[in-house]
Request: fold
Amino acid sequence: MTATSPLALLGGPPVIDAPGPHFSWPPIEDGDVSAVIGQMMSAVSIPDRSGVVAELEDSLVSFLGVRHVVTTCTGTAALHSMYAAAGIGPGDEVIVPALTFHATATPLFHLGARPVLADVGEHGQLDLDDAARHITPRTKAVVAVHLWGLPENMDALADFTARHDLMLLEDGSHAHGATWRGQPVGSFGRAAAFSMNGPKPLSAGEGGFVATDDTELYYRVLLHGQYNKRCRREIPAVHELAPYAVTGMGLKLRIHPLAAALAHAQLPRLKGYLAGREAVADRMRRALHNVPGIDVPHPPPHARSAWYALPLRYDPDQLTGLPVERFIDAVHAEGAIEVDMPGSTRPLGDHQLFHTPGAVLPGYADHQGPASDNFTNARRVHGSTVKLPVWHRDQDLHLTEAYTAAIIKVANHHKELVK
Ligand SMILES: *Cc1c(COP(=O)(O)O)cnc(C)c1O
Reply:
């Protein structure tokens, strides 16, 4: 076939011919392997705050600069424990950004509470004007989500929650190590929940944790998912919650010690990883800065992202109306196969559970979900986000350059795809 276009999708040579995957996370080093094997030899079940669980929690306490950390089996469990410990209960409303991973909000359904979705701004941050419109006498809290690792505007959120007398909570699952004015995300709210699931900046494979400065809330996190020994050892016998120590609140959500060992071995390397990601993200942002149809994120100078991904905004109007799906097909054909649109992080109003939870959660039989024409920005931002992985190693710089070159090539030749 004679190529009439250099675009690989139309028969030209691709930019990248190395087979994938081109990105994997977490990086596993020899020390991680020996840490997990060593843990297997010493303890595979830890019922209290000892051993590697205590070591990981202590490391996270100093990493985030908070008073308490409780590890959990997943980030979803951490969010559940955080909401329960914050006293969110039946009928309470919690304002959640309409664009996030569903588990930011879904545990609220298990506390009898109502997630109230508020639209987002141009960069996926909570739209505080829309949030204000959703405040009712039942509103208890607002959740900050640091989407793709970019810190939320914590000045605005702290001011907003103080003004409306609401609790500020955080979901830091994309953003371990991100900072706002030098302060780590996860240390702003009354409490924060983090995932340590596979691809997250700090990974245990599966895991999560709650961070808080509030000792009372800490005891309640323990009671929610860490019953018996741990509660008996840590909640003072004279405390009014001590009689609940044996059963806790009835759930068991502890982290697996092997998962804790993996995260604990990795945590000392996280700052180095994030510095590497920042350098790569800066290169990619510079390379894509003036490319038509592509908008790169511009975090304010006082914000440091964890660069969980590099979220680009795609504007077909600048590319003769080329649909984003066709653009991505062309980029994939160039061999940049890790470029994609967000899958599971999407407008929450699209999920059946947020519309008609009653079919699976009988307590919500009369729950009225949000109208599907709401959250126009969440929809628009989601429908135009194209994300790239952010590598952290110098030896991956050729991939960084090849990926941006693939995007630039497709943008430069886009007319050949629309005719
Ligand atoms: C991954 C994630 C969760 C859920 O964490 P799991 O460890 O997968 O349970 C919650 N919120 C956000 C924003 C996430 O990215």
Residues 30-269 form a domain with the Aspartate Aminotransferase; domain 2 fold (CATH 3.40.640.10). The pocket of pyridoxal-5'-phosphate is lined by residues 74-76, 100-101, 103-104, 145, 171, 173-174, 195, 197, 208 (CB under 6 Å). The first helix runs from residue 30 to 42. Residues 41 and 305 are 37 Å apart (CA to CA).
